[in-house]
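Extended Data, panel c. Modelled sequence:
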Amino acid sequence: MAENQGPLFVQRIIWGALVFSQLIYLGLGLSGAMGPEAPSPEYIESGTPAILFAIGLGQIAFGVFGIPQVIKVSEDASFAQRQTQRIVQWALIEAGVVLGLVCVISGGPSSVLIGLYVVALVGMLKLFPKDDTSSTSVG
């Protein structure tokens, strides 16, 4: 690894770890190891799966589009400031997938988890850390 690639490499490791953890959540939810075999009709009728899905979508959307408006990073921002913004974005996206897993664990349909996972994966791909010429200076 080239010396000037260090900070970007770290971001890619963090990004990859979060994407992998989302894949693990999907696997756990679909394996049947986490919750009942079939969705509970009472739980579905309560509207909770729809609420969890909506909140999860909101978290993912806020992570992708809202955080840059809340945590503003200027053109001359330090690498640490840019990294903070990105990590907060990725964490919010992951939290959306966690709500899908919560839905499955509590007896909801796996389609909520699958839907949130797909949207989160698209968001994570959009936010993949690209080569950043201003990130080459460490410190």
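Residues 7-130 form one domain. This feature is highlighted in the accompanying rendering.
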